[in-house]
TrEMBL record:
GO MF assignments: magnesium ion transmembrane transporter activity; metal ion binding
Entry's localization field: Cell membrane; Membrane
Domain of life: Bacteria
Transmembrane spans: 278-298, 310-335, 356-376, 382-404, 416-439
Function according to Swiss-Prot or TrEMBL: Acts as a magnesium transporter.
GO CC annotation terms, alphabetical: plasma membrane
Protein known as: Magnesium transporter MgtE
Membrane topology: Multi-pass membrane protein
Keyword Signal: no
Record key words, sorted: CBS domain, Cell membrane, Magnesium, Membrane, Metal-binding, Transmembrane, Transmembrane helix, Transport
Family: Belongs to the SLC41A transporter family.
């Protein structure tokens, strides 16, 4: 897709179409995302209706909105009308209110009702991203009757590979796979094939939790029901993957000490990137004042044994790295449901042992190196400090994300940068305390 930029700037529609027609929709979407909005709109308008819809649904909501801004109202209406309801709701949920209202007003009554229903669920919930277009199979039907339902309604559904099974009141009893229906005898009752243990979630449940449940249970689609177990829709695997990708992107940003942002990295404005990072850098800068205060407190010790200053970068760097490793492991374990707040004592004990083991290994290495540079006395201080700092840093790094979750804060927010800053200051306290104890300074 490297040639797309040059072809668009030459305004060569035939060459652009030749290039785009041979590429998968996701590659075309990525190519459009790399163009300026005006150029992307020009190239997008060259695509035929079906191809345009396929590419449009692969774009991020930010780029979808940019394209819509450059299209006529009738073109916008036709394009959005053909979108799947969950994709449409995802786009409009991130659009400005005026844009969302204008787009909704141009939809047919049925599509508008489905989209409005999805937008009515809380942001981040399963209801926002589920598809209401499903094929439900009556539990009292036979395989022949069930397949007839699939043939009659399947064209309008997002997926037919996982079929909800319902009773007369539309209450969900389980699921049956299309594979089982096709392979079963025609007169087999659906009731004999239904998986009554199929997982299900409420529409107001957290979307990320539901997506991870799909991964754990190896599901292509997950049942979404209301408080009375009536069928509302399905969370499909493609939407689950997008949820997890967005969650991982957000966690990665927060773990690096930045606010999450959306859009193509290469074409996000520099000022916007700086704005997402500035706040946390300022917070960490203020937190780092603790380190300066600790150095002031132990200024006399440094004057008496100046060699202690040589190892400050080594010790605070090692402590910060040990804490960041533990924090990253804890955030990941929390995200996938392996660790809960009730596990805090076990996590503390586990990470304390890991930290002490690492500290012992590094302390032995530090003792040898420091002895050759400054003598055995200070080398012993460095070695003991490494053991203590690694144990402390690993414990703090694993504990802070769990405590943050308990307080309703995203665990990723208090991960690597925050842990590193805290360990820097407390690590110096440990270092100079050990020096006073062993050297008497």
């Amino acid at each position: 897709m490297e040639r797309l930029h040059d072809l668009v700037h030459r305004h060569d529609p035939i060459a652009v179409l030749d290039l785009l027609d041979d590429r998968p929709a996701h590659e075309v979407a990525d190519g459009l995302a790399r163009l300026e909005p005006v150029d992307a709109g020009w190239a997008f308008r060259l695509l035929d209706k079906d191809r345009a819809l396929e590419v449009f649904e692969e774009l991020d909501p930010v780029h979808q909105q940019e394209l819509l801004a450059g299209l006529r109202d009738d073109a916008v209406g036709a394009l959005v009308e053909e979108m799947d309801p969950d994709d449409r709701a995802r786009m409009l949920g991130e659009a400005p209110a005026k844009v969302a209202t204008r787009v909704l007003a141009g939809l047919s009554a049925g599509e508008r009702a489905m989209t409005a229903a999805l937008l009515g669920y809380p942001d981040g919930s399963v209801g926002r991203v589920m598809t209401p277009e499903t094929v439900a199979v009556p539990v009292h039907s036979s395989v022949t009757e069930a397949l007839a339902v699939v043939r009659r309604k399947g064209a309008d559904a997002e997926t037919v590979y996982t079929l909800p099974v319902t009773d007369a009141g539309r209450r969900v009893l389980g699921t049956v796979s299309l594979r089982d229906l096709v392979l079963a005898r025609p007169d087999t009752p659906v009731a004999d094939l239904v998986d009554r243990a199929a997982p299900r979630v409420r529409a107001v449940d957290d979307g990320e939790t539901a997506a991870r449940l799909m991964g754990e249970a190896n599901l292509l689609a997950l049942l979404v029901v209301d408080s009375e177990d009536r069928l509302l829709g399905l969370l499909t695997i493609d939407d689950a993957v997008e949820i997890l990708e967005a969650a991982d992107t957000e966690d990665a940003a927060r773990q690096s000490g930045a606010a999450p942002w959306s859009g193509h990295y290469m074409y996000v404005k520099v000022t916007r990137l700086a704005r997402t990072r500035a706040l946390w850098l300022a917070v960490l800068l203020l937190a780092a004042v603790l380190t300066v205060n600790v150095l002031q407190i132990f200024e006399d010790s440094l004057e008496q044994v100046t060699a202690l200053a040589l190892f400050i970068p080594l010790l605070v760097g090692t402590g910060g790295n040990a804490g960041a490793q533990a924090a990253s492991a804890a955030v990941r374990a929390i995200a996938v449901g392996e660790v809960r707040l009730a596990d805090l004592p076990a996590v503390v004990w586990r990470e304390l042992r890991v930290g002490l083991l690492l500290g012992t290994l590094l302390g032995g290495l530090g003792l040898v190196v420091a002895s050759a540079l400054v003598g055995v006395q200070i080398a012993t201080v460095v070695a003991v400090t490494l053991v203590a700092i690694c144990g402390w840093a690993a414990t703090v790094g694993a504990t802070m994300p769990l405590l943050a979750r308990r307080l309703g804060i995203d665990p990723a927010v208090v991960s690597a940068p925050m842990v590193t800053t805290l360990v820097d200051a407390t690590g110096l306290l440990i270092y100079f305390s050990v020096a006073r104890l062993l050297l008497g300074v």
